[in-house]
Write a sequence for this structure.
């Protein structure tokens, strides 16, 4: 019996009943395979190409047999440019993919690249949002270059979201109203991970891609099992409310107005901000309006708590959200909050060092960022090397803890706000020191071990 191994992150990982409605597509793939193939799902939460390579890849290689298939599903976690432990720049991402392919082929197995799934997010015009940056394309390029089979999950989940539309799409994700699911009594808004229905449908589509690939042997997928997909889900409850404007314009009110806890008044938020708050006990539903028009709603749990995120992304600029609770006694007074949406972030200003300046081996970088930016990520040659918190006055500072070697370096500085980031500001510096091959350095290091710290021992080796 041949093995079909899945490596990747939380979107593919198998789940238990206690984690419902969360589900991973990898746990259902075996339903569509022939009896001669066993699916083994090694995907794990927050796993990256670098993390799996260091912690688990050798174990996988040791258990592979010729003819096995390995599905490589990364590219979601690696785009976290706000997280040094997770971020992979384009070259690092593609270099790791090439190493994976080479090593897996070296064991006689077949590597299959699987692009990351789309997130449940829609632009204001109803089109599906591209939230995975260039990672799907970088994976496509490596697949073409190495002549590897490709399962373009990003492409077919984008199409799936398009077909479902904003009024139905979240029924395929772990996205529930407060009080809707016992495992999430206060609600869960998760646009990245699938529920049981969504994960099974994505697994079916993966199986179809494997079946149609000319680079894979026949007999992996059972054709009859992939022919029937999930039933088209009904519209969400918030899109079936009849005459919602009555709640906004009614002259009769009952009880107290709901409380909008997040965002606070006049806060700057992202286009996919999650709203939350409370309502009087007995409130069954919250209705939301902007400029007098109904834009959505959500259930309220028994404790009066609610969470809600608009299915369509907010547009750039100032907004006012109005909220009304529905109770057996009638509708509540209207609550409102004004906030500003930011969909674009300017690159940070780098004040020092100056462009092309000479520095010592511990260059100190500093600058400023626009209001709302919480951190600045620092990259060298496309690889993330650190982060600088932005102070209340908008300034930031960064010094790398390791000495830089003599040479010329180009750095990039990126502003981070919510789930969006700026284009990079670039800076070239020249680090002053002795080249590695210089006699002054080599002669000093030839006979003796270096000191761990700065010292005044002779001869001078070019260290500061």
């Amino acid at each position: 019996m041949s093995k079909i191994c899945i490596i990747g992150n939380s979107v593919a990982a198998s789940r238990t009943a206690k984690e419902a409605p969360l589900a991973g597509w990898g746990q259902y793939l075996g339903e569509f395979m022939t009896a001669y193939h066993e699916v083994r799902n090694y995907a794990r939460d927050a796993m990256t190409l670098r993390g799996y390579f260091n912690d688990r890849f050798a174990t996988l290689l040791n258990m592979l047999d010729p003819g096995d298939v390995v599905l490589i599903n990364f590219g979601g976690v690696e785009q976290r440019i706000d997280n040094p432990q997770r971020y992979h720049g384009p070259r690092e991402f593609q270099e790791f993919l090439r190493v994976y392919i080479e090593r897996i082929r070296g064991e006689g197995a077949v590597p299959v690249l699987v692009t990351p799934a789309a997130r449940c997010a829609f632009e204001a015009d109803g089109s599906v949002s591209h939230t995975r940056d260039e990672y799907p394309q970088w994976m496509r390029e490596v697949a073409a270059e190495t002549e590897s089979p490709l399962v373009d999950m990003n492409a077919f989940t984008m199409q799936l979201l398009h077909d479902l539309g904003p009024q139905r799409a979240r029924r395929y994700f772990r996205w529930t109203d407060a009080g809707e699911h016992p495992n999430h009594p206060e609600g869960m808004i998760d646009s990245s991970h699938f529920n049981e229905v969504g994960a099974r449908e994505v697994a079916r589509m993966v199986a179809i891609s494997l079946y149609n690939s000319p680079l894979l042997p026949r007999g992996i997928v059972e054709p009859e099992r992939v022919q029937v997909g999930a039933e088209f889900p009904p519209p969400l409850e918030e899109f079936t409310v009849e005459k919602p404007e009555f709640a906004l314009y009614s002259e009769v009110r009952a009880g107290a107005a709901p409380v909008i806890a997040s965002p606070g008044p006049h806060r700057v938020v992202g286009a996919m901000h999650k709203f939350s708050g409370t309502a009087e006990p007995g409130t069954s539903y919250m209705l939301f309006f902007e400029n007098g028009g109904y834009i959505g709603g959500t259930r309220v749990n028994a404790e009066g708590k609610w969470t809600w995120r608009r299915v369509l992304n907010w547009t750039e600029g100032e907004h006012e959200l109005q909220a009304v609770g529905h109770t057996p006694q009638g509708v509540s007074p209207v609550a409102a909050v004004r906030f500003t949406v930011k969909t674009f972030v300017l690159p940070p200003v780098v004040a020092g060092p100056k462009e092309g300046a000479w520095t010592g081996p511990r260059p100190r970088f500093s600058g400023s960022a626009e209001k709302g930016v919480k951190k600045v990520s620092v990259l060298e040659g496309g690889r993330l090397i650190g982060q600088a918190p932005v102070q209340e006055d908008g300034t930031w500072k960064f010094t790398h803890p390791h000495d830089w070697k003599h040479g010329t370096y180009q750095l990039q500085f990126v502003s981070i706000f919510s789930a969006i980031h700026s284009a990079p500001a670039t800076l070239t510096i020249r680090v002053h020191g002795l080249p590695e091959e210089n006699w002054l350095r080599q002669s000093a290091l030839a006979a003796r071990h270096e000191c761990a710290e700065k010292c005044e021992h002779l001869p001078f080796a070019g260290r500061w």
Notes: The radius of gyration is 27 Å. The chain has a mean pLDDT of 94. DSSP finds eight helices and 26 strands in the chain.
